[in-house]
């Protein structure tokens, strides 16, 4: 019922050459039609990615967006602009944005609304730091991040959101959450959502992110509440990324 999504977050990495490689590899890859794949390159690569991946099932995503549609926001990019390049998904609240660019829950909410109003599907990223986990605060932190946004949306808006649980300590560290740890938190997110609407919670797509790779993806994705992955480092290696996509469907 929930179509898995594998989203590759290139962060500030990649090149035009890599875009070309992805285009060729995905054109030749055997992918199940029951898995959705999104690639999120840096902004300048979007037109090239649109051209290179146009004949493949891969859709495009953005790593962030500004809450405004246009105006005096030097250096920023709006949802409307992204939409012109075929962007279908946008990350909001990635832990690197929260930590390095001080985007707190309210800024995340604003960006999520901006994505929705540009007809882009937001992927809301949430997750605890190691300190918070060690202090036994994982559930509180994650549900606060989820609640700050989801509790203020109307039911129609909620159906457009995907949530990615990404423990901060697992991102780029090579230290993956165990399938049980990831499942426990994602089940708690779904249960929280069921408090608003059971049917909507059952259809809510939940991803795991944090050092997912070709070797551990299948086990993570076999968990009942893990509906896909948000993949950083391993999404820069085309063979690994395709292998992850294949283990999802
Ligand atoms: C990410 O950046 O969202 C991520 C999950 O990175 P990595 O896979 O490298 O841990």
UniProtKB/TrEMBL annotation:
GO terms for molecular function: isomerase activity. It is found in: Cytoplasm. Coiled coil: none annotated. Substrate binds at residues 9-11, 172, 211, 232-233. Pathway: Carbohydrate biosynthesis; gluconeogenesis; Carbohydrate metabolism; erythritol degradation; Carbohydrate degradation; glycolysis; D-glyceraldehyde 3-phosphate from glycerone phosphate: step 1/1. Transmembrane segments: none annotated. It catalyses: D-glyceraldehyde 3-phosphate = dihydroxyacetone phosphate. Its EC number is 5.3.1.1. It comes from the Bacteria. CDD domains: TIM. The active site is at residues 94, 166. Pfam families: TIM. HAMAP family: TIM_B. Involved in the gluconeogenesis. Catalyzes stereospecifically the conversion of dihydroxyacetone phosphate (DHAP) to D-glyceraldehyde-3-phosphate (G3P). NCBIfam families: tim. Homodimer. Belongs to the triosephosphate isomerase family. PANTHER family: TRIOSEPHOSPHATE ISOMERASE. This is Triosephosphate isomerase. It comes from Modicisalibacter zincidurans.
